[in-house]
Structures are given as structure tokens and as C-alpha cells.
Write a structure and sequence with these properties.
- The protein has 159 residues and is mainly α.
- The chain has one domain.
- It has a three-stranded antiparallel β-sheet with strand order 1-2-3.
- The longest helix has 24 residues.
- The radius of gyration is 17 Å and the shape is globular.
Length: 159
């Protein structure tokens, strides 16, 4: 499980560092938008109080604590699953990415009351109105990796 914990820590630190830099140091929380490489990469401040794409964002403060609880339960479930099935290193790395991202978004909800989303990407005449963050990418990538490598027989088990 060492690979999982190291990967979770690195993912968490990278997520929080990018959020601090963009939201605080570049002052995106005040300026609202910074064009980095238009239209492909822009910083657009979005405080996500809900779940994906801001769904359920109008459910009040109880929603915040429910979402924190759900994230903690899912994280604990992933940790239990990886340990119980004695998953190999590749699966542990993906689990670590997922766990680090989930913890990053939980910390945002605790500190800010919402998740700090700022990455916005558009292309080819399509204007993407949504923002996301490194933790969101990590959660998605970790989940896909666990689907592909978390099944018994996909790789050798580690002790």
C-alpha cells in the first residue's frame, strides 16, 4: 500500500499547490478569468458547491457536509478494496491518484465551503462553459485506472 499512499500524497500536494497558485497568487478569485492559451486553456474561477458541473449546488450547507461524508466514505471504500484484494502496484497507483484527488476536493469544501475549479478548455469552435481542477482529473483517471487494473488477474499481486 506504500505506492498508494505516496501517490495520494503527491496528487494531493499538486492539487492544492495549483489551486493556491492560481486562485490566490494569480488572484483568480478576484479577477475571475485569465486567458492562458485561448481557446485551448483558460483559467475561469468557479466555486463548485455541488457535484459534477455544479449539480445540486442549491441544496444549502447540509449539502456541503453530505458531499464531504460521501467523499470520505468512497475514499475509505477504495482503500478497503485495494487492501482486501491485495492489488498490485499499478492498481495502487491509480487508487492513490483517486484518493489524493478526493482528499483535495474535501479540503476545499472544508476550507472554502466549495471546490475551487479553474481549468477551462475549449476547442474547435466549441465553447466549454465548465471549469474543473487537477483533483477532478485525478479522480476520473484513478477511477478509470481502477476499472482497468483493479480486477483480479490484471496484474501480479504484491505482498
Amino acid at each position: 500500500m506504500q505506492a498508494l499512499w505516496i501517490t495520494a500524497f503527491v496528487t494531493f500536494v499538486a492539487d492544492q499547490a495549483t489551486k493556491w497558485y492560481v486562485v490566490q497568487a494569480l488572484n483568480l478569485k478576484t479577477v475571475g478569468a485569465i486567458d492562458v492559451w485561448p481557446p485551448f486553456l483558460n483559467f475561469r474561477m468557479a466555486w463548485n458547491e455541488g457535484v459534477n458541473f455544479g449539480m445540486f449546488s442549491d441544496a444549502g450547507d447540509a449539502r456541503r457536509w453530505i458531499l464531504i461524508g460521501v467523499a470520505v466514505v468512497i475514499t475509505a471504500g477504495v482503500l478497503y478494496w485495494v487492501k482486501r484484494d491485495r492489488m498490485g502496484t499499478v492498481a495502487q497507483l491509480f487508487a492513490g491518484v483517486l484518493v489524493g484527488g478526493a482528499i483535495g476536493n474535501v479540503i476545499d469544501r472544508i476550507v472554502y465551503g466549495a471546490v475551487a475549479d479553474f481549468l477551462n478548455m475549449s476547442c474547435c469552435g466549441l465553447n466549454n462553459p465548465f471549469s474543473f481542477n487537477l483533483a477532478d482529473i485525478a479522480i476520473f483517471a484513478g477511477a478509470i485506472g481502477l476499472i482497468l487494473f483493479g480486477k483480479p488477474g490484471n496484474e501480479a499481486k504484491t505482498p
